[in-house]
Amino acid sequence: MAEFTMELNDEQKEVRDWIHGFAADVMRPAAAEWDEREETPWPVIQEAAKIGLYSLDFYAQQFFDPTGLGIPMTMEELFWGDAGIGLSIVGTGLAAVGVLANGTEEQIGTWVPQMYGDVNDVKVAAFCSSEPDAGSDVAAMRTRAVYDEAKDEWVLNGTKTWATNGGIANIHVVVAVVDPELGSKGHASFLVPPNTPGLSQGQKFKKHGIRASHTAEVVLENVRVPGHCLLGGKEKLDERLARARERAKAGAERVKNAAMATFEASRPAVGAMAVGTARAAYEEALEYATTRSQFGRPIIDNQGVAFQLADMRTQIDAARLLVWRASWMAVTGKPFTSAEGSMSKLFASEVAKKVTAQAVQILGGNGFTREYPVERMHRDAAIYTIFEGTSEIQRLVIARTLSGMPIR
Ligand SMILES: Cc1cc2nc3c(=O)[nH]c(=O)nc-3n(C[C@H](O)[C@H](O)[C@H](O)COP(=O)(O)OP(=O)(O)OC[C@H]3O[C@@H](n4cnc5c(N)ncnc54)[C@H](O)[C@@H]3O)c2cc1C
């Protein structure tokens, strides 16, 4: 039985320092350029691949860290380096987790390595769930998947939006409706292999922050994928749909939703990204406050500034603790009876928004310019309260979990 400890072990510290080195030496110097270019930083992804930081092996190792801290530690350091480049590096992992969560062993073994490509030819993957009329309201999804039994193929039609790496990905994981009567219980996920006819990129979004990360619409027009591209396989899908239909017929009000448990386990990773950005901005602000003088003394000599820094640091540490708790719960199989995963994402993302705004304020006019990185960090931080479920949706999930009520 492991003893309780708040410390990373030696191996974890070594990995953390190694990621930090890459974040400081490679990501930070490149951050402003790729933010301005608003393009996927392929050369940086390639550098990460060269040292093994962009690879299935590395993420699998962190994913299976028995303490649960491998992934949050990785996310915090990468996003401390830069959020836009960070998402370009870990975006593939979001699609890979979709396959790990629902795929068969064969599907995982065949497709996940292809998502990363190899050192000389790096690839990215995309996870496509959101649609123009189905963001928070996932059940409103309209993209259809229809089975063509004669050919053992699924035919996908619809428009996905906001897909990170959408259209530039080697492999797209697409969530689609297989039974419209069943709401979100009638959804299934499909792998769309490279160069499949009918899949195209729609508009690429020009964004407020994380601009190095590619975000675009994905249009699916009669996209045919082989039967084996249905994640989990047809037999499992048919069983799941039959169970859902029976429950619907019996009028069962609340069924335990496996997808919710997956979200609880994945949301702390987004919380950790937010902690990374918040910590980066706090460090810039602390440095500035001790070196910038006004009225003949460093500005940190004013309580108005010093107390802000005290609050910033306290909130960042509190956010990290919530993230670590939820990550530990996920890996040790503890039930999320209070939606602790959602709690950690809610708190950390709100902290990142607040702390980066305070950092801009502490840097004064300089904080408002692109000469200093806090301006970019502030723009980047705005994403954390939006993707992987907005703050309002996190509150909804927490409130429903606590009360057992169908709070709307
Ligand atoms: C940069 C970026 C990258 C993304 N990457 C991906 C990706 O890779 N794959 C993917 O599938 N999606 C992705 N998304 C989509 C993201 O998850 C959605 O934007 C998010 O879920 C919110 O959906 P929406 O934008 O449609 O907002 P809406 O759902 O329309 O919400 C608008 C506002 O209404 C509020 N609201 C909605 N319903 C309620 C309610 N019941 N109670 C209270 N308030 C409510 C929301 O909180 C929000 O403030 C990405 C988004 C962005 C911006």
UniProtKB/TrEMBL annotation:
Its cofactor is FAD. InterPro entries: Acyl-CoA_DH_CS, Acyl-CoA_Oxase/DH_mid-dom, Acyl-CoA_Oxase/DH_mid-dom_sf, AcylCo_DH-like_C, AcylCo_DH/oxidase_C, AcylCoA_DH/ox_N, AcylCoA_DH/ox_N_sf, AcylCoA_DH/oxidase_NM_dom_sf. Keywords: FAD, Flavoprotein, Oxidoreductase. GO terms for molecular function: acyl-CoA dehydrogenase activity; flavin adenine dinucleotide binding. Residues 126-223 form the Acyl-CoA oxidase/dehydrogenase middle domain. PROSITE patterns: ACYL_COA_DH_2. The keyword Flavoprotein applies. Residues 9-115 form the Acyl-CoA dehydrogenase/oxidase N-terminal domain. Residues 258-402 form the Acyl-CoA dehydrogenase/oxidase C-terminal domain. It comes from the Bacteria. Belongs to the acyl-CoA dehydrogenase family. This is Acyl-CoA dehydrogenase.
